[in-house]
C-alpha cells in the first residue's frame, strides 16, 4: 500500500487527493534533474561541426532537408534512402532555426541539431521514469533507472551523432505512446481484462486501436527495406540459421555493454557462428541463460521482469540480422531496448532490497549513486569521440582492429584531412605525404586483415584505392595484386561497372609499363566493355592498341596494325574538348597512323 501511494505521488494529476504540495515539488525537482542531467553527453562535442562521415548524406546534402518543401518529397519513399519523414521534418526545422546565423557564430549549425536531439533524449528520459512508475516500479528504483537511461554512454551515438536523430525521435514517441497506453488502459476504456465483457468485447477495442498502427509499421518496414536494398547483405554466416546462432554472442555482448560500458566502439567485429558445435555458442548461450534465470529468481515481481526481457528482445529484434545490413552490431541499436533492461534491473534491485531488508539498503543506495556518477564520467568521455570522423574511427580501429568498417572510416578520414590541408598553399608536403601513407595503411589493412571485408559493398573500391596507393609508392607488384582483387570483387556483391573499368584500366597500364602490350590491350578491352562510357578506359585502350600496333608492325602484320590504329583513333576522338583527358588524347592522336 505504501509503495502504491509512493507511486501515485509521482503522478499528482492522478493521485486520489492530488498529492501534497511537498510531494508535488519533490516530483518536479526530480523531473528537472532528470531532464537536465543528460547534457553531460554533449559536454565535449556539442560545438563540433557535422561529421564528414555521413551527416552530409542525411542532413546537409539531403534534398529532402535542403530542397523545396513538398508533401511528396517528405512523405513518399525515396529510392536508396531511409524512410523517416518525421526526422526529415525535424531537420528542416533545425535548418530554418539555425542555418542562417549559427555558422557565423559557431562555424556550422550542427550544434543546434545536437541540442535539439538532446531535448528529445531528455524528454524520453522523463517518459522512461513515468512509464516505470506506471508499471508499478517503486519511485526510488524508477528514478535510478531513469538516471541510467539519461547518462548511459551507449546513448552518445543517438545524441552526439547528428545523423542518428531518428533514434531519439523513435525513443521519444515510442515511450510517449507506451505511457499513454498505460494510462489509457488504466482507465478501463480499452476493454482489456474486464471479466464482465464477452470474449469478443475484450479484444475488439484493442484490435481497432492497434490495427492502423500495425499497418503503418508494415508500410514503414517495406519502405525501408526497399530504400536500403543496396545496403542489405547476406546474414552473418550466410543464412538465417547462422544469423540466429551469431545473435547469441551479439546479445551477450550487448548486455555486457549495458552493464559495463567501458570499451564501447562505433563499429564492432563479430565472427559469425556457423555451427552448433562452436564453443562460443554454448559459452555465450549459457551466460545468457544464467543472467536471465538469475534475474527472474531475484526479481521481486517476476511478471514485470519477464515483461522487461520481452521489451529488451522485441526492441532489439529488428537489428538481430535476419534482415542484415552492413553493421551487425552497434550501440545505437540499444537505445529503444535499454528501458526494458532497466525494468529488469529495477525488479532485481527490489528483490535484493527485500532479501537484505534494511541492513543492505544504505549500501545499495551508495552503489546506485556511485554507478550513476560512473556512467556520467564515461558518457562525457564517450561523447568526445564524436568531435570529428578521425577521432571516431581511430577509436574504433584501436578497440576493434578486425572490423572492416572501422578501417574504411579511418581511411576516409585521412583522405579528407589530406584534402583539406592541400587547399592551403603553404601546406607542408611531408605532412600531406604522411597522411597519404596512413590512408594507404588503412586501405591495405581493410583488404588483408579484416575478415568481414566481404560484407562491405565498397570492398572493390577499397581494393582499388589500395592499389593506387601502392602504385604511388612504386610498389607495382602489390598494386597489381590489389587491382586483381578489386576486379574480382566480393563474393555475392556485384562490382560497380566504373570501379571494375578503372581496376582493369590500371592493370592494363601496369602491363604497358612492363612492355606486355598484348595483355594490356586485352585488359583495356575488358575495361571498355565493363563501362563503355568511361573515357579513361577508352584512352587506355587507345594507348594499348597503339603499343600493340607498333609491336605487330615489326612482324609485318599490316592489316591487323591498321585495325588497331583505327580503333585507337576512334577511342581518342570520343574525348570532348572540355574533358580533363582531352589534351592527352590530342597528343596521342598526333602519334596515330593516318587512315588507310
Describe the structure.
With 596 residues, the protein is mainly alpha-helical. Among the domains are: 230-359, no CATH class; 526-596. The protein has 27 helices and no strands. It has helices at 2-9, 21-37, 55-60, 63-66, 71-75, 85-98, 102-106, 110-134, 139-151, 156-159, 165-186, 199-227, 240-259, 279-298, 302-316, 338-356, 361-383, 389-399, 404-422, 429-449, 459-472, 476-488, 497-513, 517-530, 535-553, 558-573, 582-591. The chain is elongated and about 100 Å long.
Distinct helical segment count? 27
Element-by-element helix/strand order: HHHHHHHHHHHHHHHHHHHHHHHHHHH
Strand content bin = under 5%
Q: Which assembly state applies to the chains in this document?
A: single chain
**Global Rg:** 30 Å
In round numbers, the mean pLDDT is 87
Structural class: mainly alpha
Major sheet description:
none
Poorly predicted runs of 5 or more residues: 1-25, 187-201
Topology:
Layout: H1 2-9, H2 21-37, H3 55-60, H4 63-66, H5 71-75, H6 85-98, H7 102-106, H8 110-134, H9 139-151, H10 156-159, H11 165-186, H12 199-227, H13 240-259, H14 279-298, H15 302-316, H16 338-356, H17 361-383, H18 389-399, H19 404-422, H20 429-449, H21 459-472, H22 476-488, H23 497-513, H24 517-530, H25 535-553, H26 558-573, H27 582-591
Helix pairs in contact: 2-8, 2-9, 8-9, 8-11, 9-16, 9-17, 13-14, 14-15, 14-16, 15-16, 18-19, 19-20, 20-21, 21-22, 22-23, 23-24, 23-25, 24-25, 25-26, 26-27
Amino acid at each position: 500500500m505504501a509503495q502504491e501511494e509512493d507511486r501515485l505521488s509521482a503522478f499528482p494529476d492522478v493521485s486520489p487527493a492530488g498529492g501534497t504540495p511537498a510531494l508535488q515539488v519533490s516530483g518536479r525537482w526530480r523531473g528537472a534533474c532528470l531532464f537536465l542531467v543528460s547534457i553531460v553527453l554533449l559536454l565535449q562535442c556539442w560545438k563540433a561541426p557535422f561529421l564528414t562521415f555521413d551527416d552530409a548524406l542525411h542532413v546537409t546534402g539531403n534534398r529532402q532537408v535542403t530542397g523545396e518543401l513538398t508533401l511528396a518529397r517528405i512523405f513518399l519513399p525515396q529510392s536508396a534512402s531511409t524512410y523517416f519523414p518525421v526526422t526529415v521534418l525535424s531537420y528542416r526545422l533545425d535548418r530554418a532555426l539555425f542555418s542562417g546565423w549559427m555558422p557565423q557564430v559557431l562555424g556550422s549549425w550542427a550544434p543546434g541539431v545536437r541540442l535539439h536531439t538532446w531535448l528529445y533524449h531528455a524528454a524520453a528520459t522523463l517518459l522512461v521514469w513515468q512509464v516505470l512508475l506506471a508499471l508499478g516500479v517503486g519511485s526510488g528504483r524508477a528514478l535510478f533507472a531513469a538516471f541510467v537511461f539519461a547518462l548511459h554512454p551507449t546513448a552518445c551515438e543517438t545524441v552526439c551523432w547528428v545523423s542518428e536523430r531518428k533514434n531519439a525521435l523513435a525513443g521519444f514517441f515510442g515511450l510517449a505512446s507506451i505511457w499513454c497506453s498505460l494510462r489509457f488502459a488504466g482507465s478501463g476504456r480499452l476493454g482489456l481484462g474486464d471479466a464482465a465483457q464477452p470474449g469478443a468485447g475484450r479484444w475488439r477495442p484493442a484490435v481497432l486501436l492497434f490495427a492502423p498502427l500495425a499497418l503503418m509499421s508494415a508500410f514503414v518496414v517495406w519502405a525501408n527495406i526497399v530504400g536500403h536494398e543496396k545496403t542489405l547483405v547476406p546474414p552473418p554466416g550466410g543464412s538465417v540459421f547462422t544469423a540466429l546462432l551469431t545473435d547469441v554472442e551479439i546479445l551477450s555482448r550487448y548486455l555486457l555493454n549495458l552493464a559495463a560500458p567501458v570499451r564501447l566502439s562505433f563499429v564492432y567485429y563479430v565472427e559469425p557462428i556457423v555451427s552448433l558445435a562452436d564453443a562460443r555458442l554454448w559459452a555465450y548461450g549459457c551466460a545468457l541463460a544464467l543472467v536471465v534465470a538469475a534475474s527472474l529468481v531475484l526479481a521481486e515481481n517476476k511478471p514485470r521482469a519477464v515483461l522487461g526481457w520481452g521489451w529488451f528482445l522485441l526492441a532489439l529484434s529488428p537489428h538481430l540480422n535476419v534482415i542484415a545490413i552492413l553493421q551487425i552490431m552497434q550501440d545505437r541499436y540499444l537505445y529503444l531496448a535499454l528501458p526494458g533492461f532497466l525494468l529488469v534491473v529495477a525488479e532485481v534491485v527490489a528483490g535484493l532490497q527485500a532479501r537484505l531488508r534494511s541492513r543492505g539498503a544504505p549500501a545499495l543506495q551508495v552503489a546506485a549513486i556511485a554507478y550513476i556518477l560512473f556512467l556520467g564520467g564515461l558518457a562525457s568521455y564517450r561523447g568526445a569521440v564524436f568531435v570529428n570522423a578521425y577521432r571516431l574511427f581511430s577509436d574504433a580501429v584501436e578497440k576493434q582492429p578486425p572490423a572492416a568498417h572501422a578501417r574504411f572510416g579511418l581511411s576516409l578520414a585521412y583522405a579528407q584531412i589530406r584534402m583539406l590541408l592541400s587547399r592551403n598553399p603553404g601546406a607542408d608536403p611531408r605532412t600531406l605525404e604522411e597522411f597519404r601513407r596512413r590512408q594507404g595503411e588503412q586501405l591495405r589493412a581493410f583488404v588483408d586483415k579484416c575478415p568481414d571485408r566481404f560484407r562491405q559493398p565498397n570492398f572493390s573500391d577499397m581494393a582499388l584505392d589500395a592499389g593506387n596507393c601502392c602504385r604511388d609508392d612504386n610498389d607495382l607488384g602489390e598494386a597489381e595484386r590489389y587491382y586483381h582483387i578489386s576486379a574480382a570483387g566480393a563474393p555475392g556483391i556485384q562490382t560497380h561497372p566504373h570501379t571494375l573499368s578503372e581496376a582493369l584500366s590500371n592493370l592494363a597500364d601496369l602491363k604497358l609499363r612492363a612492355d606486355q602490350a598484348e595483355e594490356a590491350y586485352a585488359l583495356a578491352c575488358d575495361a571498355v566493355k565493363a563501362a563503355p562510357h568511361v573515357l579513361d578506359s577508352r584512352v587506355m585502350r587507345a594507348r594499348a592498341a597503339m603499343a600493340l600496333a607498333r609491336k605487330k608492325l615489326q612482324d609485318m602484320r599490316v592489316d591487323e596494325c591498321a585495325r588497331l590504329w583505327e580503333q585507337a583513333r576512334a577511342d581518342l576522338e570520343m574525348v570532348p574538348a572540355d574533358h580533363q583527358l582531352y589534351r592527352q588524347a590530342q597528343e596521342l592522336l598526333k602519334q596515330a597512323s593516318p587512315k588507310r
